[in-house]
Design a protein that fits this description.
Layout: E1 8-13, E2 18-21, E3 24-26, H1 33-44, E4 48-53, E5 65-68, H2 72-82, E6 88-91, E7 98-100, E8 119-121, H3 125-132, E9 138-144, H4 149-159, E10 164-168, E11 181-182, E12 184-188, E13 193-195, E14 199-200, H5 201-214
Parallel strand pairs: 1-4, 1-6, 4-5, 6-9, 9-10
Antiparallel strand pairs: 2-3, 7-8, 10-12, 11-14, 12-13
Bound molecules: cytidine-5'-triphosphate (CTP).
Cytidine-5'-triphosphate (CTP) is lined by residues 12, 72, 91, 93, 95, 97, 122, 124-126, 141-144.
Length: 215
């Protein structure tokens, strides 16, 4: 993709919240900073950016079309409405893999006994986009692995039919959830791996977008 100017780009960011009852949810510590940094840098490069963002207090520039969502299902629905016209899709959101099977209509009262909540899988947005992808679309996934990082990230790339996968390091202090900095490696379909230093999320976003432009 020679340049991002004028290209339609979809970015997912942030966590998702999966309701247990009207006041409680299952969520995660994603701040949305990495995805929002990607959106901000892409706008500077002239892309037309749609940001589909889970609950995050991080603001974004007005020129970014921002769609705020809560759950994995909301995020899936919002992405599906936009995907056909996109040139580049970057899925940096930390989507919950499971949600409560039944959402209680009223607040669950405390009892002396324990409480079990049955969970069911959420729709896998990246996997669905991999199946729908046309040859002119570029699909970028994110991966967070604790074991066999590169091997698992590579099989995720193949399984979900991505062009690139950004592997977040959990091994480095200052990288990942909530931090201002991040350390990533980017894998492509041809087994190329580019590893970057720990840097600000804005700089990481520039690296990712540069790699997309060179791809
Ligand atoms: N993802 C998604 N929809 C989901 C779950 C994940 O679109 N329901 C996307 C994330 O945005 C990310 C990628 O899938 O781009 C990788 O997510 P990850 O949780 O690391 O992978 P999983 O497929 O859930 O596999 P596992 O948890 O077994 O590592």
């Amino acid at each position: 993709m020679p340049e991002l100017k004028g290209k339609n780009m979809l970015i997912t960011a942030g966590p998702t919240y999966e309701a247990i009852d009207p006041v409680r949810f299952i969520g995660n510590h994603s701040s949305g900073k990495m995805g929002i940094a990607l959106a901000e840098e892409a706008i500077k490069l002239g892309a037309k950016v749609t940001l589909i963002c889970g609950p995050s207090s991080v603001p974004s520039t007005e020129s970014i079309k921002r769609v705020d969502v809560i759950s994995a299902q909301n995020m899936f629905d919002a992405v599906m409405l936009e995907q056909a016209k996109m040139d580049v899709m970057i899925l940096s959101a930390a989507v919950a893999d499971y949600r409560p099977k039944n959402v209680a209509e009223s607040k669950i009262k405390k009892k002396d006994s324990g409480l079990s909540i049955e969970l069911e899988p959420t729709p896998d947005i990246l996997d669905s986009l991999g199946k729908l992808k046309t040859k002119n679309q570029l699909l970028v996934g994110f991966a967070l692995e604790t074991d066999n990082e590169l091997e698992n990230a590579h099989s995720k790339l193949k399984k979900k039919n991505c062009d690139l996968i950004v592997l977040n390091s959990l091994q480095d202090a200052g990288a990942g959830f909530g931090h201002e900095t991040n350390k990533v490696s980017i894998l492509d379909r041809h087994n190329n791996i580019t590893t970057f230093e720990l840097k600000s999320k804005a700089e990481v976003a520039k690296d990712i977008l540069r790699l997309i432009t060179d791809y």
